[in-house]
Amino acid sequence: MTAAVFFGCAFIAFGPAFSLFIFTIAKDPLRVIILIAGKANEGLAAISEEESSPISVREMAYVAGLGFGIMSGAFSMINTLSDSLGPGTVGMFGDSQYYFITSALMTLALTLLHTFWGVVFFDGCERKRWWVIVAVLCLHLVVSGLSLLNPLYVGSVPPVYVIMLLMAVWAFFSSGGSLHNLSLLWTCRKSNAETSS
Amino acid sequence: MKDNCICVLMVCCVCNTPLHGLDFFVFLCFSDVNSNSVAQKIYVEVNNTVPCVRLLNATHQIGCQSSISGDTGVIHVLESEADLEWPLTKGPNPPYMILLESHLFTRSIMMKIKKESSRIAGVTVVVPNTSPSEFSPHTTCPNENTGVYSDTYGPHLAHCNTTVWNPLGNGLSYEEFDFPVFSLKEDKQCYYDHNRVVNGSAPQYPLCAMQLFSHMFAVTDTATCMRRNDVINFSINPEMVCDPLGDFNVWGSIRPYNRSQLGHRDNESVVMAAARLDSRAFFWDVSTGAEGSISGFVTLLAAAHALRDVTQVAPPTHNILFAFFQGEAFDYIGSSRMVYDMQNGKFVIDLDNVHSLLEIGQVKRLVDNFQSSATGANFSLVEPGVSQPLPPSSLQRFLRAQNIPGIVLADHRAAFNNKYYESYYDNADNLNLRYPPNMTAEEQLEFLTDTAMALTEVATVVARALYKQAGGDGTQVDNIKADSKTVTQMLFGFLVQANNSWFQALIPPELKDMLSDPPDFYVGVASSSPAKAKPLTRLVQFLLANLTGTATNLTQDQCQKPDDLPDESVQMYSYLWVQGTVPHNGTEKGPFCVRASVRLSQALSPAFDLGEYASRNYSTWTESRWKFIKARIFLVASRDLEMLTLGVGVAVLFSSLLVTYFISTKADVLFSSAREPASAAY
Question: Organism's domain of life (chain B) (predicted)?
Answer without folding.
Answer: Eukaryota
